[in-house]
Structures are given as structure tokens and as C-alpha cells.
């Protein structure tokens, strides 16, 4: 999908349907509600959401392609101003949470609001050869029910080598509040009570994905983060097909 096509306000139903199917095939099925909501709206804000979703889809695909080629996932970027993969090994979850290594992957590193994409990857998947069934894969994504209770979109309550969760999570901080601009400047939090956005900002393993809301009275407060991931099974399938998974 080209950004020019995404910016068009009126599109034939066939094109809208094709765009939706493409995004659903790349991103986790748990994001269906978010994607349908964004693609079905013709506002300028929704157009930026569509462009960001397309950017995230390309990043997800590039990460899977990197793993298929090199037998591992890349580490986060060196800094907010250097999009090359960090040379240092991840000693833990915190070391493997940062910004998408956009230069290494040859993709856009920022969303449609000029904020760098966050990237958190399981440390054990950044070292080749990856030993499937042995390496710890522990990223999770949760959503909320209307009454505020959490449930899992990706992963589960207990992540272990034999019950793995997600290999990596990508996050756009959305239009409002938090995030880091392409100049490396962190954006201040202009909201109050947006606890889910604050949790995502500090997270290294466990993230929250919800339908956007400007209502501070909603459980978790205001929210416009966009969170995506790829199931571990899909990642391993691509790596096995490339003969890069023992």
C-alpha cells in the first residue's frame, strides 16, 4: 500500500477491503477491532492512523524477514538519532526495549505524527542460533473489557519456554501524549489519568492495546497508542522455511 493511496478520502469498496485484508494478514488478529475502526473512518485523523498501521505492517514484515535471513531478530536501535541495530547484546528485557532499528531494517522508523516507533523484543531471539522450545519468549499484550478488566490479546498470564508468549511488540505512541520525536526530544504527557499510556511508555515486556478514546473517565484513561505484533508461530514458520531455525 502506497501512502498516496492511503491518503485518498474516497476509495472504492474493493480497495478498502483489500487494504483491510492485507493489514489483518500481517498484524495480530487481536487488532481486528482497531483496524476496522480506523479504516472505516474518513477523518484526517483516521488517515494518519491508516498510514501508521501501514508503517507498522511493513516494520513487522521486515522484522520477520530479518529473522528468516539471519536466524534471529534484531536488537533495538542504538539511540533515538541512530537507527542502526545496537551492537551490544541484551542482558535482559529492559536492554531489549527501545526504538525500532529502522536503518538496519530499511523501513520508516516513525509514525504519522513524527514519533519514533517503540520496539521490544525477547532477548533470547536476538541471538543466533535460536533454540525453539528452549528460549524464553515473554512479551504480552492485553486489552480491557468495557468494565475495565484485562484480558490477553497476545500471550498469556504465564510465559515459559514450553508456553511461549509473543516474540516482539511494536508500538506507536499516537497523536497525543508521550513518545519521542524524530529529533530525539521526548514529548510531555498532557493528559491526566492516562495510566495505560503511561504503562506502555515504561513497558519492556507487557503492553496494553485498546480502541482509541479521548474520554478520561474510561478505564485506563485517554488512549491512542497503536500496538502490533507477530505471533511466534508465524515467525518460526518463516525461519524454518529459510532453514534458519534449528
Task: Write structural notes for this entry.
By secondary structure, the protein is an alpha+beta fold. 31% of the residues lie in helices and 12% in strands. It has helices spanning 3-7, 13-26, 32-39, 44-70, 102-105, 195-202, 232-241; strands at residues 97-99, 118-121, 140-144, 150-154, 168-172, 206-208, 226-229. The strands form two sheets. A four-stranded antiparallel sheet has the order 1-2-5-7, covered by helices on one side. The protein has a three-stranded mixed sheet with strand order 4-3-6. A hairpin with a 5-residue loop joins strand 3 (140-144) and strand 4. Helix 2 (13-26) runs antiparallel to helix 3 and helix 4 (44-70) crosses helix 7. The longest helix has 27 residues, at 44-70. It starts with a helix and ends in a 5-residue tail after the last helix.
Characteristic key phrases:
246 residues; alpha+beta; four-stranded antiparallel sheet; three-stranded mixed sheet; 7 strands; globular; disordered N terminus
